[in-house]
Specification:
The chain is of the alpha+beta class and 418 residues long. It has helices at 3-10, 24-36, 53-57, 75-78, 83-92, 95-104, 124-138, 186-192, 214-217, 252-260, 262-267, 283-294, 296-300, 314-323, 336-348, 404-417; strands at residues 14-20, 42-45, 66-67, 109-111, 116-119, 141-143, 148-153, 162-166, 171-179, 199-205, 207-211, 223-231, 237-244, 248-250, 272-277, 350-359, 365-370, 388-390.
Length: 418
Amino acid sequence: MPPNVAKLLSLSPMYKAAIIGAGASGCFCAVEMKRRHPDWDIVVLESAPAPLQKLAITGGGRCNLTNSFNEVGSLREVYPRGEQLMKRGLREFDQNDCMAWWEREGVRLVVQDDQCVFPRSQDAMQLVHTLERLMSRLGVRLRCRCKVISISDLRSSGGCGYHISLASGEHLEADRVVVSVGGCSSEVLGRILPQGVPLTPTVPSLFTLRLDDEKLRQLGGTVVRDATLSIAGTAHRSRGIVLITDWGVSGPATLRLSSYAARTLSQMQYKGRLIINWLSLNEMQTADMLEGLVGGSKAGGRQLANTRPEELTDRLWRHIIARSALRPDIRCSEIGSKGLSRLKNSLCADCYDILGRARFKEEFVTCGGVDLAGVNLNTLEVKGFPGLYVTGEALDMDAVTGGFNLQAAWTTGYIAAK
């Protein structure tokens, strides 16, 4: 080892473990690790002025910290990337373990009808203060405004453990390092991590879609309870609640689709065609529904605008009628087979040009990060780098909305600590 390097390392503070990133996963990992090893000197390094800033605004400040999973048929539905990791991880620390953990720490929880779990206080800061208090009480060192610029594997210079360089010019050394920098780009991760850690390019996930149709956007605030969205030319689709906005579409079905199609939409530069099935019925079911709605002697004399499916609002029904090149005041008996066919097509496959994506409130999730093929899924240790672990969103793993991303943060933090 060169003398100048040896001198530098001899002056660097020594830690048993250093955690990079004071987000949900990093802080949770620090608490669990310190409980297992009370004698360890553990430091959490955070570039922001305060820890857990993203947790504080999650769920509109209410913090959807997990999900009951009662309505999840397959993990692939909620974890488009990282399904196998979460299948193993949930055996170690699942949603029930998570809820019990927070309840033991004095955070009372409530499970909503949609199976999302929130603190009964409806205040994300209760979770933030709980983690801060636990770290302080256990003796975890928390250092904010400490930006890590690189992590070096000391084995390459004949040592052991890892050397951490900070933007301030300070240097640290740790036997073990946990990387929990959620939301970082793959370029930033590539600069921080030792050379040779495999990365998958990061792209945004969980966003709403901007659509090129002013007449649809004028229906902003309209909610459709059960619609199916898909991207033309792909197999990506999602079903659920759709909210029409003044820029396009949002709501759970849109966010879910953006998660499923995150990489595809990135490759398409967020252009393409969005197909909306307004009632989530196939063509035959829609044809039968329309026949029952507008056919027969009772409906024949009524105007089409006054003969709408109960699932659709009056304004949206009139919009669909116009998209079918029909007049709202046309009598049902005058529509004809061609008119019914156009109406069926508008209900089943209403197409809109995608102009781009829009960020969903304060939420921001990326897919991509440390490639799971390069990580031991049982321990989250990076293959070929003993003592280097990765958790949370720094992994190429992400989920749809509903508390699943935070469950992944708690689960992976727990596994790395263990």
